[in-house]
Amino acid sequence: MQNKNVSQNCGDHPKIFTINMTCKILKILLVCFVLTNSFIVNACTIFMANDGQNVWIGNNEDELQNVKYRMWFYPAKSNNYGYSIWTELSLGKLLNGFSYLNPQGGLNEYGLFMDFTAIDPISIVKDNQKKDRKKQVVTDILKKCKTVDEALSYLNKYNLLKLKNAQMFIGDAHGDYATVTGGYIVRKKTDNSFALTNYSINNGHKEACHRRDAATNHLNSATTFQLNDITNILEKTTQKLPNNLISNYSMAVNLKTSTIYLYYKNDFTTAATLNLSDELKKGKHHKEMQDYFPASIASVLNAELKNNGITLTIKKYKDMRHSSYDKYNFKNDDVINFAISLIEKGQIIDAIKLLECLKEFDHDNTNIYSWLGVANRKSNNIEESNKCFLKVIEQKPNDYLATLWGRQENQKVIFKLADFEDAQQVSLMGDFTEWTNHPIKMKKENGFWFCEIVLPKGENTYKFWVNEQYLADSKNFMHTGSGPGIYSKLYVW
User: Which residues contact 168 (CB under 8 A, 6 or more apart)?
Assistant: First the structure.
């Protein structure tokens, strides 16, 4: 079996790794095992931003990308306050064939907010003088409580047996907050702002978490908070494709006005604005979360391609841009990612034709030219590939995709990781490092994590290790594997 020689330089002295390729599969399986066993603790971010005028909640819901959700609205009646909850959908017999098992979160008309982050299992503390509570508490609290103090008073009657794998965050319009589990309750610790992720809050936040640190640092650097400040923090703390867990939806919630600004699938250019007072006036109702936003066009194009080929697929795309622009999302990279999937399947000519079509409508999008560069290189059209990469670099000299794929001189590859400037430690690992055996420490430069290495020709797979979390490269949508075993893929020319 042929060995691979890999040199690396991340600001330290160069090193040489000799890799026995017979270990590759075993190392990948090991990484899969680690990812699978850390699955729970990497889900969701919640933060409060209180500047004395506005009290904001930011929330990223991180789950498998195919999970669907519903918003529910319940007006006040009898002695119950009006409220909204949001849930995953599950098959059932109620309400058009769907019901919900447990609310993921909720907001009532007095600005009382609740949501959850996942944690590793904790021990439940039981008081024999209290009743055992096995069912969810969210709806009862939203119906009966206006403030965090009232919510805690209500919860104090029960042993919260259900809260073993999750921390429940409660915040109110006065800026008060608390974190509740079946084993502990932690009250408000700061006057203004607070961030919660996936580690037990009662342990002093000893674990490294780049999402918590990013949120905290941005919160502490501001004195006032507007909607754009909240969305900036949300974007900094999202989990993105091609990773297994992604931020399926995000919320910026103004507790003073009980207004929810809802974002979907990491797209912060389009918000669904839901004022709770206005929604409650409509009576009891619900709506699928995805229906607040334009639908994905990629699934339509995929079906058309399978049935009728690339020429008619491109015609359909152009026709739909004219006839259904508001119904489908033409503004994000949905179609680009579809073209990348065609490259991965070996349908290079189809991918090139589709990307050339996209240029007509979005000629300033450098991602289109970068992936045209990859596709043309894969089809051995080196001259056209170089033209595409050069066009990107002329516009954006430090563009990551064009650098990663198009500046491979003598097999030297530059990895540059953005969005993690608040991480304490970042490493690169892949088949070229025997995965976890020889991770390459990356160096921080101007807010980016940087590493320059020489890689073997052909296909290489890799991931980043960011504060004890495996992450695929969110800028490079070429990937392989599925579930927790998703890896970024790079061809070295």
Answer: 114, 115, 116, 137, 138, 179, 180, 181
Question: In sequence order, what are the beta bridge partners of 73?
Answer: 84, 285
Q: How confident is the model at residue 371 (pLDDT cuts 50, 70, 90)?
A: very high
**Secondary structure letter of residue 182 according to DSSP:** S
129 touches 136 (CB < 8 A): no
Strands 295-296 and 328-329: parallel
Q: What is the mean pLDDT of the chain?
A: 87
Whole-angstrom Cα distance, residue 329 to residue 430? 34
pLDDT at 202: 81
Whole-number Å distance between alpha carbons of 7 and 413:
11
Secondary structure letter of residue 80 according to DSSP = B
d(Cα 116, Cα 104) in Å, to the nearest integer?
7
For residue range 243-253, what is the model confidence (pLDDT) as tens digits?
A: 888 999 999 99
For residue 455, CA distances in Å to 95, 197, 236, 461 come to: 55, 36, 30, 11
Distance linking the first and last C-alpha atoms of the chain: 21
- 259 CB-side CA count, 13 A: 11
What is the C-alpha R_g of the chain?
Answer: 24
Q: 85, 214, 178: which is closest to 138 by C-alpha? A: 85
Enumerate residues 6+ apart whose C-beta is below 8 A from 310: 349, 350, 353, 354
Residue 10 in 3-state DSSP? coil
| Each residue's pLDDT tens digit, 164-216 | 999 999 999 999 999 999 999 999 877 678 999 988 888 765 677 889 888 99
Q: Is the dihedral of CA 274, 278, 284, 285 positive or negative?
A: negative
Q: Which helix (H) or strand (E) holds 360?
A: helix 348-361
Q: 10 Å Cβ neighbour count for 314?
A: 20
219 touches 191 (CB < 8 A): no
How many CA atoms within 13 Å lie on the side-chain side of 227? 17
In the numeric block, the tokens 């929604």 are attached to 279
Comparing CA positions, the residue from 160, 194, 156 lying closest to residue 175 is 194
What are the angstrom distances between the C-alpha of 150 and each of 310, 351, 393? 60, 58, 58
Residue ranges and CATH numbers for the domains of the chain are 1-37+408-493 (2.60.40.10), 41-293 (3.60.60.10), 295-405 (1.25.40.10)
4's torsion region: left (phi>0), alpha (psi -120 to 50) or beta?
beta
Q: Taking the CA atoms of 108, 112, 116 and 121 in sequence, report the sign of the dihedral they define.
A: negative
Q: If DSSP codes are grouped into helix, strand and coil, which group holds residue 306?
A: helix
The distance from CA 411 to its chain's CA centroid, rounded to whole angstroms, is: 31
pLDDT (0 to 100) of residue 467? 85
- Residue-level pLDDT at 332: 72
* Three-state secondary-structure class, residue 359: helix
Helix, strand or coil, per DSSP, at residue 490: strand
